[in-house]
Amino acid sequence: MATVVLYMEDRRGQEPDPCYLRAFDAIVTEQGPDFVVLDRTAFYAEGGGQPYDTGILSWGGGEARVLRVTKEKGVIRHHVDRLPPVGPVHGAVDWDRRYAHMRYHTSQHLMSGLVWKIYGARTVGNQLYTDHARVDFQPANFTPEDLARIEGECNRAIEAAHDIRIFQEDRLVVDSKIGDRSLLDLIPASIRRLRVIQVGTADYCPCGGTHLRNTSEIGRVRIAEKRSKGKETDRIAYELVPTGSERPT
Ligand SMILES: [Zn+2]
């Protein structure tokens, strides 16, 4: 049976917001040599440029560290340092790490949306970490002035405190809205409903990641460098600098 992914549930009217779920109860349904499968999880499995979550699984009399979470052929594996028995467990996500990934992921969508609007450059790759991120744009050959503009536009959108909406939308609708901006053909044709992340008016993009509720939680974008990654492709590396105005979590 497939694992219910708790952060993918509809965020409207949910308290806490599913992306902010740090702890949950679940059942171990399957044991591997160094991993378990759960009936439900709040742990993020590596994918889409967002790293996996870490944390703890505990049960009556025992505790294991979740070292890595992967998804293989649709099965979410929680790799652990000791095996919990089949049965009930309590899961706790390492929140500092996860929340940093959320801040970087939402800021990446914001930057990708703005760069598309201003320069017509697509995002062709991205990788997030807890303390920096990089995004590859194509076609692009940004000047220092362009980078200053991108940084400024991102920070204006953050200061405007845009809400982030997450909803399901028909694939054809998504396709008609984003056209040749996205590599939608990489998503299997059998998937007809897509999970869309909308960052204010700045970005609209299908994604399976975990995201903030409001851009004000991002902090301040500081572009560290730009590097050419070959033909018409530029890689922007940036950091998020706390401003103190982020909402408490
Ligand atoms: Zn994403």
At a glance:
With 249 residues, this protein is of the alpha+beta class. Helices cover 20% and strands 38% of the residues. The protein has helices spanning 95-119, 144-159, 171-178, and strands at 4-5, 23-31, 35-38, 40-41, 55-59, 62-72, 75-80, 87-93, 122-128, 133-138, 164-170, 193-199, 203-206, 220-228, 234-241.
Question: Would you kindly provide a written description of the structure presented here, covering whatever features stand out?
Answer:
Helix content is 20%, strand content 38%. It has 249 residues and is α+β, with helices and mostly antiparallel strands. It has a six-stranded antiparallel barrel. The structure holds zinc ion. The site of zinc ion has 5 residues, from helix 1.
- What percentage of residues falls in helices of 4 or more residues? 10-25%
N-to-C series of helices and strands: EEEEEEEEHEEHEHEEEE
Which residue ranges are poorly predicted, with pLDDT under 50 across at least 5 consecutive positions?
none
Q: Which structural class matches the secondary elements? A: alpha+beta
Give the SSE map.
Layout: E1 4-5, E2 23-31, E3 35-38, E4 40-41, E5 55-59, E6 62-72, E7 75-80, E8 87-93, H1 95-119, E9 122-128, E10 133-138, H2 144-159, E11 164-170, H3 171-178, E12 193-199, E13 203-206, E14 220-228, E15 234-241
Parallel strand pairs: 1-4
Antiparallel strand pairs: 2-3, 2-8, 3-7, 5-6, 5-8, 6-7, 9-10, 10-15, 11-12, 12-13, 14-15
Helix pairs in contact: 1-2
Bound molecules: zinc ion (ZN).
Zinc ion binds at residues 48, 105, 109, 207, 209.
